[in-house]
Amino acid sequence: MSSAFSKQRKKRILATVIVLVIISLFIPTPYYLYQPGSVEELGTKVTVEGGEKDPSGNLYLTTVLSMRASNIYYLAYGWLAPHTDMRKVKEVRGDLSDEEYSRLLKHMMESSQNHAFAAGLRAAGEKVDIKPTGVFVRDVREDTDAKGKLEVGDVIHQVDDQSVSDSNAFLEYLSHKKSGDIVELQFDREGTIKKESIELVPLTNSVNKAGIGIVTESQFNIEPSREIRIDAGDIGGPSAGLMFSLEIYNQITPGNLTKGYEIAGTGEIDMDGNVGQIGGIREKITAVERAGIDIFFCPADIGPYDSNEKDVLDEVKTEGYKVKIVPVKTLQEAINYLEKLPPKE
Predict the structure, then answer these.
(1) Would you say the pTM of this structure is higher than 0.90?
(2) 147 in active site
(3) Any idea which architecture 130-221 has in CATH?
(4) Which range among 74-83, 161-170, 181-190, 208-217 shows the weakest confidence by mean pLDDT?
(5) Neighbours of 217 (CB within 10 A)
(6) 82-135 confidence digits (pLDDT tens)
(7) 185 and 198 in contact (C-beta within 8 Å)?
(8) Which residue of 24, 85, 105, 311 has the fewest CB atoms within a 10 Å radius of its CB?
(9) What is 31-68+109-127+227-340's CATH number, 3.20.20.80, 3.30.230.10, 1.10.10.10, 2.60.40.10?
């Protein structure tokens, strides 16, 4: 009897363990894993009308591979895998839903491409027409009437009976309002026009005394002097802006900017060619080193909280990487550096 009882007990314990293991597969952890991603050649992704592509040397964008640690086994892998950074979901996406986060990444990539069009063409001396198309909602404050009515990714076109084409016009209209006032917003959400009445809240550390309680930026449409096509695939975010603009400039100006070198880089770009900080710089430089790249452009540290330049130089020194690091503040600095390079032997 005791032997049979012992076997039954072992079976129950084994069954319990199996159930717990299966359950653990479906319990997500509050972490994302970040690892070195791909280094992707831009000549096949960017095509400029009337431009020329030189097969001697290439420009590359860099990516970070990100994945949700969907269970404790992925999390354990993240602890053990080299060159893996773990970040809490809250740090990565705040309180955004999956849909809002997807819209934000798509907007950031589209904006990055538009900025690259403007910066690259302007650097080459060509004309670019910039037309504002609305007010993009980047964030919605929790303790406001707007929460639940507006979502990240909405594009506001009208407040009350006033059309607003950019953030400045939107803020100017609200500057004449006070806390407790009601405004009616008309906005586009993924192709559907919606209307909501929203009560204004008091603002601190702001020019306006009252507002919606949202973070906005102007959305623009770029009308370039020539057609430009970018096939970014499923790459999201703004960090390819610098390299997109360099590729555009390289295709429409005489000569070959790369001079036979393999050149990668990362950094946001604005329409005036200023380079901004990005995330995942340590993972990106590891991907670049593995790909055998000669030169890597990174955003220069300018402000007191900037760290891209410091981080990438520290990673190169710690890991003994051979790639040449070139921090830049602007697109023009990157162009000037490449123009002074001797041809690769």
Answers:
(1) no
(2) no
(3) Roll (2.30)
(4) 74-83
(5) 13
(6) 888 877 877 777 788 888 888 888 888 888 889 999 999 999 999 899 999 999
(7) yes
(8) 24
(9) 3.30.230.10
Residue type, position 157, single letter: H
Distances in Å between the Cα of 305 and the Cα atoms of 61, 152, 277 are 24, 26, 10
Residue closest to 139 by CA, chosen among 179, 162, 107, 169: 107
Return the residue matching tokens 């809490």: 88
Q: Where are the alpha helices (DSSP H) in the chain?
A: 2-24, 72-80, 89-93, 98-123, 167-174, 241-252, 281-290, 308-319, 331-340
Residues 6+ apart with CB under 8 A from 294: 261, 262, 263, 323, 324, 344
Task: Write the secondary structure of 164-212 as one string of H (helix), E (strand) and C (coil).
Answer: CCCHHHHHHHHCCCCCCCEEEEEEEECCEEEEEEEECEECCCCCCCEEC
Per the annotation, the verdict on 11 as an active-site residue is no
Residues of each domain in the chain carrying CATH 2.30.42.10 = 130-221
Residue 296 and residue 326 in contact, taking contact as beta carbons nearer than 8 Å: yes
**Helices H, strands E: what count in the chain?**
9, 18
Catalytic residue among 66, 218, 239, 245: 239
High-pLDDT (> 70) share of the chain, %: 90
Confidence at 253, pLDDT banded by 50, 70, 90: very high
Which of the following is catalytic: 7, 284, 322, 324?
A: 284
